[in-house]
Design brief:
This protein has about 200 residues and is mainly alpha-helical. The chain has helices at about 10-15, 15-50, 60-70, 75-95, 100-120, 130-145, 155, 165-185.
Length: about 200
């Protein structure tokens, strides 16, 4: 019994049509990566500016320093400046797709510190939990693994990062965030003891 020959694929019938389909898929991927980078990077950069300036509803450096003191960190204004620069710089690099592993590391590092602060409240954001910073860490990790896409300054400069570079960047950021928490965390004063000051 003879079977009819298999039907030709789109590529066999029309290589040009197959090429158009592949190009459309690549364009969609690049558009998705661009949207992800710009939105997440832009929000990170804006949040960093809020910690050190009065832009975008921020309370300035004094307000940022007080926030960190309230969360149990030493360092005062210096801690607020470091966190603000990390968020702003990391957000700009991630959004632009420039030095992407470094941007991933900065975002993951700052958000890891945020997770450690919010862990006692549980995961849910309505209870001031850690779900939002955790999502940002995973977003940075995915961007590092996938790369910034063709519509990025890295690709414009001819740089194509291997997948491991983004993963190493994310891991370094998480470890750096945990180390920062350990170095700057101060235990709550015992009942009846005055709270130690932590900088100007």
């Amino acid at each position: 019994m003879r079977y009819p020959p298999p039907r030709p694929t789109i590529g066999q019938r029309s290589p040009r049509a197959a090429g158009r389909t592949a190009d459309a898929g690549t364009a969609r991927t690049n558009a998705g990566l661009l949207a992800l980078r710009v939105v997440v990077g832009g929000l990170m950069a804006a949040h960093g500016l809020q910690k050190t300036t009065h832009w975008l509803g921020g309370e300035g450096l004094a307000g940022g320093a007080e926030e960190f003191r309230h969360d149990g960190f030493r360092g005062g204004r210096l801690t607020a400046v470091a966190a603000g620069l990390g968020q702003t710089g990391g957000g700009v690099l991630l959004g632009a797709g420039l030095l992407t592993p470094l941007g991933v590391a900065a975002v993951a590092g700052v958000m890891t510190v945020a997770v450690t602060v919010k862990v006692p409240h549980g995961p849910w954001v309505q209870n001031d939990g850690y779900e939002y910073p955790l999502v940002l860490i995973l977003t940075a990790a995915v961007t590092g693994l996938a790369g910034p896409g063709d519509w990025s300054l890295d690709r414009l400069a001819g740089v194509k990062w291997p997948a491991y570079a983004g993963i190493v960047g994310c891991a370094a950021g998480v470890l750096g965030g945990l180390a920062t928490r350990r170095a700057l965390w101060r235990a709550s004063p015992r009942y009846g003891e005055p709270e130690a000051t932590s900088g100007p």
